[in-house]
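Per reviewer request, we include the raw input and output of the structure prediction for the construct analysed in the revised manuscript.
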Amino acid sequence: MELFIPFIVLAFLSGVMLFLSWLLGPSKRTPIKEKPFECGSPYLEERIKPFPSKYYTLALLFVLFDIEIAFFIPWSIIWREGNKFFYLGVMFLFIFVLAIGFIWAWKKGAMNWER
C-alpha cells in the first residue's frame, strides 16, 4: 500500500492543477487562438528551411568526442590500481583510433563552414 501512496497523491495534485487551470485560465476564444500552432513556425506560411547536413555532422562529431572524454575517468581509476604500462598502451590505442577518425572527418570537410 505504501507504494501506491505517491501515485495517489500525484494523481490528486494533477487533477487539482487541471481543474484550477480550467477554472482560472482565460476562456475568451479568438480566431488567432483557434489556429493550429506548429512548433513556433507560422501556420501554413513559408516552410522552415532545413539545416544543412554539416550542422548534424558537426553535432555528431561533438557527441563522439564528448563521449570519448567520459571514458577517461574510469580509465584513470583503473590505471592507478593495475598494470600501468598495459593500461597506458590501451589508452594510447584508443586515442590513436579517435585521432584517425578526427583526421578523416577533417579531410572530408566536416568542419569546413565556408562550403
